[in-house]
TrEMBL record:
Gene Ontology MF annotations: iron-sulfur cluster binding; metal ion binding
Coiled-coil spans in chain: none
Record keyword Electron transport present: yes
Protein name: Ferredoxin
High-level lineage: Archaea, Methanobacteriati, Methanobacteriota, Stenosarchaea group, Halobacteria
Entry keyword annotation includes Transmembrane: no
Highest taxon above the source species: Archaea
Record key words, sorted: Electron transport, Iron, Iron-sulfur, Metal-binding, Transport
Amino acid sequence: MYVEFDRDTCTGIFNCVHEWEKFVEDRDAGKATLVASDEFEPDHYRRDVPEGEEFDAKMAARVCPVDAITIYDEEGEQLVP
């Protein structure tokens, strides 16, 4: 399972930060940051979801009010928005 984060879409509500520790607040930018992720397009980040953290990652995606977080399974099928 992996997560993709569209930082450009992020509005800095920081709901994700409270659901999964891999998201942290960047108050200077007014956006969340996905820790230990790789930028694959400008302002788009991706990282694997560690085993045992799947629920937290899915919750972070579900609480994002602007759908900036998407969860995919190993085959690339979208699981959460």
